[in-house]
Amino acid sequence: MRFRRARQGVRDVCVAAGAVGIGLLTMEGSRQTYPHPSDFHLARDLVIGALACAGLLLWRRRWPVRVALGLTVVGFLSASAWGAMAMALFTVAVHSAWRATAALTALNVTLITVIFTQVDEMNRRERVESIVVFLLGYAVLVITGLLVRSRRQLIESLRERARQAEEGQRLRVEEARHLERERIAREMHDVLAHRISLLAVHAGALEFHADAPADQRDAAGIIRRSAYEAMEDLREVIGMLRTDPAGERAASGRGAGAPGAAAPGGDGEGERPQPALTDLPALIEESQRAGAHVTFDDRLPDPGAVPSRIGRHAYRIVQEALTNARKHAPGAHVRVTVESTGPGGALSIEVANPLPPGPPPPPGLPGAGAGLLGLRERVDMLGGTLDHGRDPDGHFRLCAHLPWPG
After folding, report:
1. 102, 122, 142: which is the final residue of a domain?
2. Which of 122, 145, 177 is the last residue of a domain?
3. Residue 199 belongs to some domain of the structure
4. Cα–Cα nearest to 340, from 369, 297, 370
5. Between vectors from CA 150 to CA 145 and to CA 152, what angle results, nearest 5°?
6. Is residue 135 part of a domain?
7. Pairing of β 385-390 and β 346-354
8. What CATH number is attached to the domain comprising 397?
9. Which residues form the Histidine kinase/HSP90-like ATPase domain (predicted)?
10. Residue 104: inside a domain, yes or no?
11. Could you write out the DSSP letters of every residue in 60-95?
C-alpha cells in the first residue's frame, strides 16, 4: 500500500511538473507575441494557470474527462493554463476509453487552430509553425498516454493469467489429494476388511462352539464384538477418506455434532450412533471382562444431563486412556474418575494407574503413537485442558477438563 501511494505521488509530481513547464513555455511565447502585457494581465494569467494545475492534481483521476473539458474552456482565458490542459488530455488517454480521448483531442486541436488563427500579430508562416508544434506536442502526449494505458492493461491481464494459473494448480493439487485419499481408502478396505471379517467369523465360531469352556466363549464374544466395532470404525474412516473436500468444508463449517452435520460418509444416511457419557459403564465392564482391573468412580448425579457433544468426547478420552493403560501397563489397576460442577462449570475426567517397575515393557499392541495428540486435539476443540504424566506417587495420571456451557 505504501509503495502504491509512493508511486502515485511520483506520478502526480511528474504531471504537475509537465503542466507547469508547458504552461510557462506557452506563457513565454505569448509574451513574445504580445511584447508589453500589463502586470494585471500577467498576474491574472498566472493565477488562472495555478488554479488549473491544482484542479488537475485534485480531480484528474476521479473525473478525467470532466477535468479535461473544464481546462479546455479555461485555456481560452489563460496561456499558462495550457500546460494543465495538455496534461489533462494525457490523463484522459491513460484512464479513459479511446473514444473520449479522440473526442477531446479533436476539441483541443480545434481550440489551438482557432486561437492561433485569431492572432493578428503573427504572419502566416509563424501561425502554421506554431500550430504544427502544438499539434506534435499533443500527439506525443496522447500517444504516450495510450502506451501507458496499454501497458497497464497488459500487466493486469498477466496478473489475471497468473491468478488463474495458481487457481488451476490449486485445483489440480486438490484433485490429486482426493484421488490419493480414494486410493488409500480402497487399499485400507482391501487389506483390513478381509482380515477383520475372518477374525470375527472365527471368534463367532468359537463363541458358539458347544464344547468350548464358558470363559473362552466369553472371550470369543468380546473378540467378535470388537472385530465388528473395528469394521464399523474402518467403514467410518473409509467414508471420511472418500468424502470430497467441498463436503468436508461444508460439514466443518456446521461444526461437529451440530444439527444437519453430514455423516462421515458424506451422505448423511446410515450414520453410526455416537457414544455418550451414559455408555461409560458398558465400556468399563467390557474392559473388566477382557481381564483389565478397572475401577469406575462415577460422581455425576445425572450423566444423561451432560450435552452429547461433551459426553462423546469424554467417552473417547476414557477409551483411549484405557487402551494406553493396557498397552503400557498391562495388569495394572486403573482408576477412572468422572465428576462435574454442573452447567456453567466443567466436566473433569481422571484416569490413573501405577507404572510398572523397571524399564517400560515393549508394547504388546501396534500403535501409531498419536493417541494423546488426538486427545489434545479433542480437548482443544472444546476449549478445555489436558494434562498427563507421572505424578510423585509413581502413577501415570491423565486429567482432562471439558467446559460445560451453562
Report:
1. 122
2. 122
3. no
4. 297
5. 95
6. no
7. unpaired
8. 3.30.565.10
9. 313-403
10. yes
11. TTTSHHHHHHHHHHHTTT-STTHHHHHHHHHHHHHH
Question: What DSSP string describes 162-216?
Answer: HHHHHHHHHHHHHHHHHHHHHHHHHHHIIIIIHHHHHHHHHHHHHHT-TTS-HHH
What's the pLDDT at 276? 85
Q: Rounded CA gap, 82 and 71, in Å?
A: 8
Q: What is the pLDDT of residues 1-55, one digit of tens each?
A: 666 666 666 776 777 777 777 766 776 666 665 555 566 666 776 777 777 777 6
Q: What is the domain range of residue 385?
A: 277-356+370-403
Mean pLDDT of the chain: 75
Rounded to two decimals, the pTM is: 0.42
One-letter identity of residue 293:
H
d(CA 224, CA 232): 12
Exposed, middle or buried by CB within 10 Å (0-12, 13-18, 19+), for 270?
Answer: exposed
Look at the chain and report how many structural domains it folds into.
2
Whose grid coordinates read 451440530?
A: 258
**In this structure, is residue 347 part of a structural domain?**
yes
pLDDT digits (tens, 9 = 90+) for 251-303: 444 443 333 333 333 333 345 567 888 889 998 888 888 778 899 998 988 88
Residues whose CB falls within 8 Å of the CB of residue 293, separated by 6 or more in sequence, listed in order: 331, 332, 333, 334
